[in-house]
């Protein structure tokens, strides 16, 4: 094994060990932090200097996207006016491995004077930061992965993991739902999958619906006019009873070349897989992939077709 590979694995081992050892440090103070944030009437403001500040940006983003209003305050900018964003209703989470960074210690008495509560994420539970804080989360590590034990590596990984633990516990305690997550993620591939089926389904003239007594020829015409890959078949009560796809046509025409002038109910796929409009697009994608279907009727609570989605509609989602 080359020295490069060996050293890379060693670094990953150091950082993984730092995260795993946090498990034994999760206790009453973590519960206190969760309860403080849940009862907070303002926002969770996260600050730090250097690499811990960058980790704070990620933690803040995760909190904000999972139901906990949060923003970032750069420690250096804070002492030059940005402290004005802090109110007495806020909680300030300060990330500092040493707990002694000058820009951080200068902030502490002012934050306390404002009336905001402080949560420390630090590697030194006896530091000035810890002494000023209402709650201290110990994220200390035995050593950095850096050969000089200087560059923040294991310590920032540990802080990031602790922030994720905090965010996940908070979202569960808040009863944060997938629907809520979708609301805060409207863009990109993730946002598209978190749309509702009703947002993307074909309706009206683009939703080919024909009676089970209609001729195959009529079903094909409806499919062609809708530019769809299948026709949705309904009974006399307008409830879904089948679907007639390109596959059904190919399989049937070999056996019966005269099928065009016969009822489509003789050749359709009965009791097809369907979905309701309130489901997430991600669920429609999953059904199409796992069930190997190209076409998916959308039905209401009475089993009546209200829309249609196919493989092309969901392509790339």
Automatic annotation (TrEMBL):
Q: Which GO terms describe its biological process?
A: carbohydrate derivative metabolic process; carbohydrate metabolic process
Q: Where is this site: Catalytically relevant?
A: 51, 103, 144, 185
One GO molecular-function annotation for this sequence?
Answer: arabinose-5-phosphate isomerase activity
Please give the InterPro entries that the UniProt record associates with this protein.
Answer: CBS_dom (IPR000644), CBS_dom_sf (IPR046342), GutQ/KpsF_isomerases (IPR050986), KdsD/KpsF-type (IPR004800), SIS_dom (IPR001347), SIS_dom_sf (IPR046348), SIS_Kpsf (IPR035474)
The record, for Gene3D superfamilies, names: CBS-domain, Glucose-6-phosphate isomerase like protein, domain 1
Query: Which keywords annotate this record?
Result: CBS domain, Isomerase, Metal-binding, Repeat, Zinc
Annotated PROSITE patterns: CBS, SIS
Q: Which residues form the CBS domain?
A: 201-259, 268-317
Residues binding Zn(2+) are 74
- Signal peptide residues are none
Question: Which family is this protein grouped under?
Answer: Belongs to the SIS family. GutQ/KpsF subfamily.
Mind telling me which NCBIfam families this protein's record contains? Answer: kpsF
- Name listed for the protein in its UniProt record: KpsF/GutQ family sugar-phosphate isomerase
Q: Which organism is it from?
A: Candidatus Abyssobacteria bacterium SURF_17
């Amino acid at each position: 094994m080359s020295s490069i590979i060996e050293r890379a694995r060693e670094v990953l081992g150091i950082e993984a060990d730092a995260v795993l050892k946090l498990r034994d440090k999760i206790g009453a103070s973590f519960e206190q932090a969760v309860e403080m944030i849940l009862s907070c009437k303002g926002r969770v403001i996260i600050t730090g200097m250097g690499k811990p500040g960058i980790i704070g940006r990620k933690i803040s983003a995760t909190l904000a996207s999972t139901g906990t209003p949060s923003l970032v305050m750069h420690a250096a900018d804070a002492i030059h006016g940005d402290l004005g964003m802090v109110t007495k209703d806020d909680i300030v989470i300060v990330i500092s491995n040493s707990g002694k960074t000058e820009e951080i210690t200068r902030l502490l008495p002012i934050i306390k004077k404002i009336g905001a509560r402080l949560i420390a994420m630090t590697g030194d539970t006896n530091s000035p930061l810890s002494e000023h804080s209402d709650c201290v989360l110990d994220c200390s590590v035995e050593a950095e992965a850096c050969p000089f034990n200087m560059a923040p590596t294991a310590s920032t990984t540990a802080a990031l993991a602790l922030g994720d633990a905090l965010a996940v516990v908070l979202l569960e305690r808040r009863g944060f739902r997938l629907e809520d997550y979708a609301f805060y993620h409207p863009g990109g591939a993730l946002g598209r999958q978190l749309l509702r089926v009703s947002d993307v389904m074909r309706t009206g003239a683009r939703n080919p619906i024909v009676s089970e007594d209609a001729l195959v020829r009529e079903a094909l015409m409806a499919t062609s006019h809708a530019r769809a890959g299948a026709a949705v078949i309904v009974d006399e009560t307008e409830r879904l009873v089948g679907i007639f796809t390109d596959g059904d046509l190919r399989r049937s025409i070999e056996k019966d070349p005269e099928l065009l002038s016969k009822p489509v109910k003789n050749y359709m796929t009965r009791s097809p897989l369907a979905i309701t409009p309130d489901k997430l697009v991600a669920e429609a994608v999953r059904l199409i992939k796992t069930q190997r279907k190209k076409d998916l009727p959308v039905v209401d609570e009475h089993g009546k077709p209200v829309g249609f989605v196919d493989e092309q509609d969901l392509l790339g989602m």
